[in-house]
Amino acid sequence: MYDRRALEIIEQRLGLGCARLGSVLGVRGPTAAVLVATAFEQGIRFFDTASIYGQGDSERILGQALHSVRQHVMVVSKAGQYFPRGTSFAKPFKRVLSPLSGRCGLGRHIVAKARAAALPQDFSPSFLRTSTEGSLRRLKFDYLDILLLHSPPLDVIEQGDAIHFLETLRDEGKARMIGISCDDVDCGLLALRDKRIQVIELPLWPWTDRSDHFAECALRQGVYVVARGLIGGALGAAPPDGPHRAQLLRGIVRSSLALSGISRLIIGTTRTEHLKEILDALRGREDSTCT
Ligand SMILES: NC(=O)c1ccc[n+]([C@@H]2O[C@H](COP(=O)([O-])OP(=O)(O)OC[C@H]3O[C@@H](n4cnc5c(N)ncnc54)[C@H](OP(=O)(O)O)[C@@H]3O)[C@@H](O)[C@H]2O)c1
């Protein structure tokens, strides 16, 4: 069991992944607001969103829920992806589609398939500016704590112009820190070569040589690393029940945060009870009930 202070430090390094906040397959309305408020009450101070999440609704929900505590939280948003023309037609019907897609297998399948298709990207200065200003407007914030390029291809990272433009946006006060959200460790290692990059977000799996190597290099360079993909990875295959489940969750959070190169670990959940289960497991309350 951790002592109280050590536990607080770990909790402060956790973040809430908000990809499905306000999305058809995620959590909407008052339940979404409760999820964010519960995360804050439970000590979470870091929230990860993007201009495209929930077609902008993720940022709207977060902005509203965090308005009164803005100075106590860090919010990441991302720019560079957009929905193709024609897909926004569904937006007015989200309220209807959301419960339908939850109940009907076909509806869920159609929405999931549409979402899985690779989204178009644009890392030009004009698009990055419009996207970032849109994020600030939806959040009703003056600045983002972290602004990231959203899954850029490797040539965009190598070429470096997009990061140069994020520096301009940071100089204008629109973001405090800038960086890249990567899809894998190879992308992360490439991003580490660009010394202007302050933050790298990526899926990391501790106990693999590549992840450990990345975390060590990032630590040496003083890059702020946001890890994701751990909870889904751990629970994905055959999640155990009861105390073994709590042990697994506690183990995964502890071991990833024990890698000192990792600044934050994002938990991507749409369910308050799932978030509480993870926090309870971390705090050593193994009687947490959750299905
Ligand atoms: N390119 C990018 O920039 C990019 C890509 C992917 C993700 N992200 C960010 O990273 C965040 C996290 O995404 P991720 O893929 O890394 O997710 P993750 O945290 O590894 O796992 C999320 C999955 O785990 C489930 N889960 C969470 N807690 C659970 C529990 N206690 N019991 C059972 N299932 C549980 C969630 O389902 P429930 O909702 O039912 O809890 C969800 O299916 C996203 O929200 C987004 O902010 C960014």
Structure description:
- The protein is of the alpha/beta class and 291 residues long.
- It has a single domain (4-83, 119-290), classed as TIM Barrel.
- It contains 13 helices and eight strands.
- The chain has helices at 4-12, 29-41, 57-66, 94-103, 105-116, 125-139, 154-159, 161-171, 185-191, 209-221, 230-236, 242-258, 272-282; strands at residues 14-17, 46-48, 74-79, 144-150, 175-181, 199-203, 224-228, 264-268.
- Strand 1, helix 2 (29-41) and strand 2 form a beta-alpha-beta unit.
- Helix 12 (242-258) crosses helix 13 (272-282).
- Residues 287-291 have low confidence and may be disordered.
- Bound molecules: NADP nicotinamide-adenine-dinucleotide phosphate.
Instruction: Specify the number of helices.
Output: 13
Helical/strand content category: alpha/beta
Radius of gyration: 19 Å
CATH fold assignment: TIM Barrel
Give the topology string: H per helix, E per strand.
HEHEHEHHHEHHEHEHEHHEH
What would CATH call the class?
Alpha Beta
Domains (count):
1
SS elements, strand count: 8
Categorize the overall geometry: globular
Oligomer: single chain
What is the second-level CATH architecture? Alpha-Beta Barrel
Q: Which kinds of small molecule does this entry bind, naming each only once? A: NADP nicotinamide-adenine-dinucleotide phosphate
Report mean pLDDT, rounded to a whole number. Answer: 87
The largest pleated sheet is described as:
8 strands, parallel, barrel
Low-confidence stretches: 287-291
Q: Which percent range fits the helix content? A: 40-55%
CATH superfamily: NADP-dependent oxidoreductase domain
Q: End-to-end span in angstroms?
A: 24 Å
Strand percentage, roughly? Answer: 5-15%
Kindly report the spatial arrangement of strands forming the biggest sheet: 1-2-3-4-5-6-7-8
